[in-house]
Design goal:
single chain, 125 residues, mainly beta, four-stranded antiparallel beta sheet, 11 strands, 0% helix, globular
Length: 125
């Protein structure tokens, strides 16, 4: 089992920045690829970014490419999402997720077995 707890959400003006963190516990963190997803009001949850087990590869949704950066620190069991140049359309609940041990990275929700409770990000215009 893996437990995930997100933090760092809040209210920010358009053009501002936020850094989300996700703390993992329960088993060896480096065995899981990690992803960030988000769900805006009235919309389905969507992929934002993912990172491989040892941070060798990252991948982003087109909507956040060039503005968001995903990173991980396996020594601290954390994965982060640095969000710059935020837009009102980035407003959503952001979730971090972990794959089962030794699974590949993916942008599909069903590839992830463990989810955090989410953290709210609100971008005002």
């Amino acid at each position: 089992q893996v437990q995930l707890v997100e933090s760092g959400g809040g209210l920010v003006q358009a053009g501002g920045s936020l850094r989300l963190s996700c703390a993992a516990s329960g088993r060896t963190f480096s065995t899981s690829a990690m992803g960030w997803f988000r769900q805006a009001p009235g919309k389905e949850r969507e992929f934002v970014a993912h990172i491989s087990r040892f941070a060798g590869s990252t991948y982003y949704a087109d909507s956040v490419k060039g503005r968001f950066t995903i990173s991980r620190d396996n020594a601290k069991n954390t994965v982060n999402l640095q969000m710059n140049s935020l837009k009102p359309e980035d407003t959503a609940v952001y979730y971090c997720a972990a794959t089962p041990a030794f699974s590949s990275v993916s942008s599909r929700e069903n590839a992830y077995a463990y989810w955090g409770q989410g953290t709210q990000v609100t971008v005002s215009s």
